[in-house]
UniProtKB/TrEMBL annotation:
TM region(s), chain numbering: 16-38, 100-118
KW Calcium (keyword) present: yes
One biological process term in Gene Ontology: endoplasmic reticulum calcium ion homeostasis
Protein family according to the UniProt entry: Belongs to the TMCO1 family.
Protein name (record): Calcium load-activated calcium channel
GO (cellular component) term, any one: endoplasmic reticulum membrane
Taxonomic lineage of the native organism: Eukaryota, Viridiplantae, Streptophyta, Embryophyta, Tracheophyta
């Protein structure tokens, strides 16, 4: 009985609670994704076809810069590989959709729980004065005018984004190399310009 009281008197207890719940949520979400997506044979097949197609497309692009003969046939082959890569990416996105819905539901439930626990409470102090739109997010639901106060929503958002992304990389669940939208800013399609 003395342990919860000791933890509550600790200076950073609210911050560590939010970070700990964020870590647990990330682990649970990745476990759900593994059960629904990553362990299935169809995912493994799609991932390998995307990897093969992206490598093939990459080698074809490097070869076309070196050799300029048979440019039309090379362009047609590249178009076919790009089309198959886009189809595989679309199939992969649809395949991940069901897991995404379950993960979103879990995240909404956890966020609602945390919001009720830490409503109007300062859970952290920022080491800087944030700019306008960031301050609106970091100070959401808090009373007072101290711009360095941080709400649970902002801390949970930052933790969820960073922890889940790094956990996916650590576990090897990051998107395949040639997957559409694999990064925050995917490469634009040169044909549309």
């Amino acid at each position: 009985m003395a342990t919860p009281q000791l933890l509550a008197s600790f200076k950073y207890s609210d911050s560590l609670t939010v970070v700990g719940i964020s870590v647990c949520t990330a682990v649970i979400c990745e476990a759900i994704s593994w059960i629904l997506i990553y362990r299935t044979n169809s995912y493994k097949c799609l991932k390998s076809s995307i990897d093969k197609a992206s490598k093939k497309l990459e080698t074809m692009k490097t070869e076309t810069t070196k050799i300029t003969t048979n440019k039309k046939s090379k362009t047609k082959k590249m178009d076919r590989v790009e089309t198959s890569l886009k189809e595989s990416n679309r199939d992969l996105s649809l395949f991940k959709f069901k897991s995404g819905a379950v993960v979103a539901l879990v995240l909404f439930i956890v966020f609602g729980l945390l919001n009720s626990l830490f409503e109007g409470k300062v859970v952290a102090k920022l080491p800087f004065k944030p700019i306008g739109f960031v301050m609106k997010m970091s100070h959401r639901g808090l009373q007072g005018d101290d711009p360095t106060d941080c709400s649970m929503a902002f801390l949970y958002l930052l933790c969820s984004i960073s922890i889940r992304t790094n956990l996916q990389k650590f576990l090897g669940f990051s998107p395949p190399r040639g997957a559409a939208g694999a990064g925050l800013f995917p490469m634009p399609d040169p044909k549309t310009n």
